[in-house]
Each structure stands twice: as structure tokens, then as C-alpha cells.
Amino acid sequence: MTDSHSLLQQAERQCQRHGVRFTPIRRRVLEMIAGATGGIKAYDLLDRLAVEHAAARPPTIYRALDFLIEQGLVHRIESLNAYVACPCPEHAHGFQLLICRHCGRVEELHLDEVNDQLNTQARHFGFRVERQTIELLGSCDVCLKATARA
């Protein structure tokens, strides 16, 4: 897993390469997401940001989240309505998320062959995929070991 400092440096470089602004608010939102132990909800981000920036409102968070998602720096966990930092934003292909239902830990996979197969099947049916979200909900190794001991 990528540490928060490295992730922020990588985000800065990526934004420079793409010619987009990595504003202090965007940086802080990414920092908060990267520091979370799993997915974090937008209103939890807003509560934290409001402590530092009294003028922070829902549009502030949602604009920052939209930017971070567009840049590939953050993923939305659809099933939880939460957000997680992407450990490898330079990866241009699809991804899959492993989500522990006990502790909330999220791991990102890059099984390009899975995405390729799904896209091939979609084209077979005359369907153009615009966005693909694959989330696998289960138990992480730590939680499995903890329940086995109980």
C-alpha cells in the first residue's frame, strides 16, 4: 500500500503532467481520503474539512471529489457511497475493489483481462461501456483470522 506522502507527491506530478491545478482544497481532500483506513463518505470529509475551512460546504467537497476521480486519484465505492485513494493513478485501465465487510479495508486489483473480457462481451451485444465498477465484498485475512480465533 502506498503511503500518504508518496501518494500526494505522485498526485502533484500527475496534475502537472495533465496541466490541471492541484489546489490546496483538492490536496487536503485527497490527503484525508488517503489517511482513512477504508472508504470515507463525502459528509465525513466535509465535517473534517469544515474544522479547517469554515467556508467549506457540500459543493466544495463534491467538486474536489469530481476532480480527484477525473484525474484517477480517487475511486468511488459505489456500494458504500464512499471514496478511497487510488494507490496507482498512472494505471490507465479498469480496476476491481476488494472490500472487507468487517473492518472496511479496501484493496485495489488490476485484472485487465477481466475488464477486456467484459468489454468484449458488451461489444458483442452492441453495448458500449462508459464506466465499469467491480466490487467484491467479503472478509480480509485479518478479519478471517480474528473470527477463527473467536
UniProtKB/TrEMBL annotation:
Zn(2+) binds at C100, C103, C140, C143. Gene3D superfamilies: 3.30.1490.190, Winged helix-like DNA-binding domain superfamily/Winged helix DNA-binding domain. The keyword Transcription regulation applies. Its main location: cytoplasm. Its cofactor is Zn(2+). Pfam families: FUR. GO terms for biological process: negative regulation of DNA-templated transcription; regulation of secondary metabolite biosynthetic process. It is found in: Cytoplasm. Binds 1 zinc ion per subunit. Transmembrane segments: none annotated. Keywords: Cytoplasm, DNA-binding, Iron, Metal-binding, Repressor, Transcription, Transcription regulation, Zinc. The keyword GTP-binding does not apply. One of its GO terms (cellular component) is cytosol. PANTHER family: ZINC UPTAKE REGULATION PROTEIN. Homodimer. Belongs to the Fur family. This is Ferric uptake regulation protein. The lineage of its organism: Bacteria, Pseudomonadati, Pseudomonadota, Gammaproteobacteria, Oceanospirillales.
